[in-house]
UniProtKB/TrEMBL annotation:
SMART domains registered for this protein in UniProt: AAA (SM00382)
GO molecular function: ABC-type transporter activity; ATP binding; ATP hydrolysis activity; ATPase-coupled lipid transmembrane transporter activity
Example of a GO cellular component annotation carried by this entry: plasma membrane
Pfam families registered for this protein in UniProt: ABC_membrane, ABC_tran
Annotated localization: Cell membrane
PANTHER family per UniProt: ATP-BINDING CASSETTE SUB-FAMILY B, HAEMOLYSIN SECRETION ATP-BINDING PROTEIN
Family matches, as InterPro entries: AAA+_ATPase, ABC1_TM_dom, ABC1_TM_sf, ABC_transporter-like_ATP-bd, ABC_transporter-like_CS, P-loop_NTPase, Type_1_exporter
Keywords associated with the record: ATP-binding, Coiled coil, Membrane, Nucleotide-binding, Transmembrane, Transmembrane helix, Transport
Species per Swiss-Prot/TrEMBL record: Brasilonema sennae CENA114
Protein name per Swiss-Prot or TrEMBL: ABC transporter ATP-binding protein
């Protein structure tokens, strides 16, 4: 669970600068108090009352040094100079020693934390993205970082220095009349502690609101990414209604639970403050009438206590704003604390692609491998499979039989609970994940296209690949046939802001991109499942020219893709139930034959 300490750690790298700027701001805030003090003393001079002892001492010293007698003009001159120093002279230095640093720290921390969030996004396990959609994650990061950035200057540049100012006022008043000071302190403690208690309750409500807001954002993001389905099913009105209901729920929480809470708190604070101001006025007046304090001290006490109570309002507002932001800050830290697993470790280290320490022949062995996403629900059980170098192995089986999971284990997205996976005789767990994965390449059913030129996309995994290598990969994958017809050839912009590629074209791009990596093991994950017959044939021809050049694993629903595999592995309910080549498995009269006949004739054979 995240807590307040995480917010402090957020700004920790800048602690020395932070202490300096907070101290500078606080000093400026306290120095300001010299103005009402000076005015009080001027009133004393004008009404022929004695000055405070320390001030008298200062004036006597100045009189000696300047050879001037102590008189009204000298006293007034010293007091005016003092006020001049803390007002006119402080003005040009204050913004540079305070505001500049507060924002500088906030913005530098913003850069650091955004970087941390990106690192987290890049290293989190894949299933995190199954459970949290992009809108939810992006919203959490953006709101978290923004709220930290805005809060820092408010807390360090205003809230803390204002508290010091209040403390300074207390000290000033204490020297004038300790009874007024005690009253002042008690009222402050009561008002602030009540405010903090109320804010704690409000934070709890804000947290609920934050969750609601994330749900709304998440659905909006889903609507955008699934807009084709929304339109095809004509569910625009339904989606709108659903979002409207969510927004109404948010508003209800804001108005009835949160906003009302803040207004109630504010009303209570204002009444208390006015009551205290009035009490201080009465008490000080009585003391002045009794002759216990001078006219100058009367004015100074009133001015100072009004200043102090006037600070209470911005202090409460700042605390309130912080409370409103606190839950989303906590959610950001909770996101940063999501544990990364085996596949995230060491991935962010820069690697010299050309000097990959690994080069495999491509011998892969699954030895007694068992795995379940939840340990009580096994998805793969006691898998034993040997894939020789340069062999082509097809994984087939009903949906949910565990084909993709087997590949995910090979890619080290997950670790088997039992057994081990070996490549060229080495346990893959003993290898550096990043360098190991670079020797493998996978072509998914949905090929991601990044915004940029086709060449950039082809070189995505290996930016230093020569143009010749890229051309060769495109020839094998038959992407060159597509490139011929593109307006700028390899330099055509594709992706978000460029030419849209069809499913088949994207597949060829995916294969070419994988081949550019020159992998030792190449995996096709249902690469042809969503293609029309012509595109499928074309991809099959591309795949055929790859077979035998490296270890190849093909996950396929369409059995036409796997006929030529050296070995076909049939999975059923997480177990290997048949192994053999196409002809052997047809003779075996098992699941493969049933699936084959279903696809060939549309009929099931027993
Ligand atoms: N991230 C996950 N968390 C929990 N269970 C999962 C996860 N991914 C897959 N499963 C479950 O594991 C089982 C095997 O899934 P897998 O995707 O490996 O099957 P498959 O044979 O590749 O299926 P298909 O051919 O439909 O892609 C299924 O029951 C699936 O629901």
């Amino acid at each position: 669970m995240a807590n307040f300490r995480d917010i402090l750690n957020y700004f920790r790298p800048y602690w020395s600068l932070s202490i300096f700027s907070i101290a500078a701001t606080s000093i400026y805030e306290v120095i300001d108090l010299v103005v009402p003090y000076g005015i009080g003393q001027i009133l004393n001079v004008l009404s022929n009352q004695p000055l405070d002892k320390p001030l008298e001492g200062v004036i006597a010293t100045i009189s000696k040094l300047t050879n001037n007698p102590v008189n009204k003009p000298l006293e007034l001159g010293v007091l005016l100079s003092l006020i001049f120093l803390v007002t006119v002279l402080k003005a040009p230095t204050q913004p540079w020693l305070t505001t500049w640093f507060h924002w500088d720290i906030a913005l530098r921390a913003r850069r650091d934390q955004n970087q941390k969030a990106i690192e987290k996004i890049l290293t989190l396990p894949l299933e995190f993205y199954d459970e949290n959609n992009p809108g939810r994650i992006a919203g959490r990061v953006a709101r978290g970082v923004t709220n930290h950035t805005w809060s820092y200057p408010e807390i360090s540049g205003q809230l803390i220095p204002k508290l010091f100012r209040v403390l300074g006022i207390f000290v000033f008043i204490w020297f004038v009349d300790w009874r007024v000071a005690v009253l002042y302190l008690i009222s402050f403690v009561i008002i602030l502690s009540f405010t903090l208690r109320k804010l704690q309750q409000l934070i709890w409500r804000e947290n609920r609101l934050d969750k609601y807001m994330e749900d709304t954002e998440s659905r909006t993001s889903e609507i955008i990414s699934n807009i084709k389905t929304v339109k095809a099913f004509a569910t625009e009105a339904k989606e709108l209604q659903r979002q409207k209901r969510r927004l109404i729920r948010e508003l209800r929480v804001i108005e009835t639970r949160i906003h009302k809470g803040y207004v109630k708190l504010n009303t209570w604070q204002k009444t208390m403050i006015q009551f205290c101001v009035f009490t201080v006025l009465g008490l000080t007046l009585v003391e002045t009438v009794k002759g216990q304090i001078s006219l100058g001290h009367f004015v100074m006490t009133l001015t100072l206590s009004s200043m102090a109570y006037a600070e209470l309002e911005p202090i409460s507002v700042l605390a309130e704003v912080f409370a409103r932001r606190y839950p989303s800050m906590m959610r950001f830290h909770e996101f940063l604390k999501v544990p990364i697993r085996v596949d995230g470790v060491g991935l962010l280290e820069e690697r010299n692609i050309a000097n990959n320490p690994y080069q495999f022949t491509g011998k892969v062995e699954f030895s007694h491998v068992s795995f379940g996403y939840q340990s009580e629900r096994p998805v793969l059980e006691d898998i034993n499979l040997l894939i020789e170098p340069y062999q082509t192995v097809a994984l087939v089986g009903r949906s949910g039989s565990g084909k993709s999971t087997l590949v995910k284990l090979l890619l080290q997205y997950f670790e088997p609970q039992q057994g081990q996976i070996l490549i060229d005789g080495q346990d893959i767990r003993s290898l550096d994940v990043g360098s190991y994965r670079r020797r493998l390449a996978i072509v998914h059913q949905e090929v991601d296209v990044f915004n940029g030129t086709l060449l950039d996309n082809l070189r995505y995994g290996k930016p230093d690949a020569s143009f010749k290598q890229v051309q060769e990969a495109c020839r094998i994958s038959r992407l060159d046939e597509v490139i011929q017809h593109l307006p700028e050839g390899y330099y055509t912009v594709v992706g978000e802001r460029g030419v849209r590629l069809s499913g088949g074209q994207r597949q060829r791009l995916g294969i070419a991109r994988a081949l550019v990596m020159e992998p030792d093991v190449l995996i096709f994950d249902e690469a042809t499942s969503s293609l029309d017959y012509e595109s499928e044939r074309s991809i099959q021809l591309a795949m055929r020219s790859i077979l035998g050049t490296r270890t190849t694993i093909i996950i396929a629903h369409r059995l036409s893709t796997v006929r030529e595999a050296d070995k076909i592995v049939v999975l059923d309910k997480g177990r290997i139930v048949e192994i053999g080549n196409h002809d052997e498995l047809l003779r075996h009269k098992g699941i493969y034959r049933r699936l084959h006949s279903l696809q060939e004739t549309g009929e099931l054979v027993s």
